[in-house]
Fold:
Amino acid sequence: MNLNAKLAILADAAKYDASCASSGGQRRNSVGAAGLGSNEGMGICHSYAPDGRCISLLKILLTNFCQYDCLYCVNRASSNVPRARFSVDEVVRLTLDFYRRNCIEGLFLSSGIIRSPDYTMEQVVEVARVLREDHDFRGYIHLKTIPDAAPELLQRAGRYADRLSINIELPTEQSLARLAPEKDGARIKRAMARLRVHIDDAKAAAREARDTPARSLPGAKPVRAAPQPFAAAGQSTQMIVGGDDTSDAGILQASAQLYGAYRLKRVYYSAFSPIPDASAALPLKPPPLVREHRLYQADWLMRHYGFEAREIAPQGDGMLSLEVDPKLAWALAHAERFPVDLNRAPRELLLRVPGLGVKAVDRMLLARRVRRLRADDLKRLHVPLAKVLPFVVLADHRPARAADPRQFAAAAKAPAQAALF
Ligand code: SF4
Structure:
């Protein structure tokens, strides 16, 4: 099988991993037509670097052969899909070729499990080693790691990769046992804990090296030994949404536990998508995509706005509203906390006002040191006035009555794509 055919299979097989998904672009291709380039090219996806830059990654599997039979996965052993396998050299060559042609800034490499977890992980690590040591590759590398592999291999992976991820796959151990019986939730978490220790150690070593003055022999230039890096962009994971019957409350509790216990950079939520010849244990239909979106919004509230999982996840069926975003839903359910006086309230409370983002809140805190905030100040901050005003008191504004949930639900029912031109 030639390299292009392998690339078609193994880039397509990697698309189910949402950790660095890109979407929303218009499809363009110059093959057989005028112009130059294509954005349909296999295996290129966008991701965000630790400094916030959006970067393009070559996103592929080393192989889609797999000896495990996770029911939700298109690459499971019993799946009837075309199979392919790259050699280490082929992945290295592809990465360097794409990089030199300026198509990518890094590599996202995952793999099905062949022979054994250790053997597969060795191959994945070898790709990163050859790129870094033999070719002095300075681009971004994200490796999907196999929790069942030996701890030494995970440790080696972290020396070469910018980011490591281990997929938790499903929010509960019971669902994992039912849908991915070869996987072990406790082993996955143990592997995450090991990565956390290595990441923390590397950060501490970097801090110590920075804070300790470099010493040298008299007359020689002081030289500081660089500390060994370890996955400087941290670790992340992915959770499938809608593949089992866990509620949004259960999913957010699981995420909060992962953020707290293993200091993950991100939990990615991937709406379950039905696969060919699917098992009867799986739902027939995917969940509404907006559910995935609401979970990302709720996750953002936990990481940046001081909300706890149990506050966002509703009582009862535990499902987030599909009609209004989780922050607005929380505000509507806690009318007793509003209106908030924007000229007096502490930062934590300002962050809970629907429509106010972190930047707007910080700018308001600066502005109110020198004057009392008025409605016009909010306009200048470009905050959505219709959403904010029912919840706040300003020097020249006080809402006539409590915010009415129906007004927001009606507005949210008719979403429209903003025009670019
Ligand atoms: S181990 Fe990974 S690739 Fe293999 S079936 Fe499970 S999810 Fe798919």
Remarks:
- Residues 66, 68, 70, 73, 75-76, 112-113, 180 surround iron/sulfur cluster (CB under 6 Å).
- The two ends are 45 Å apart (CA to CA).
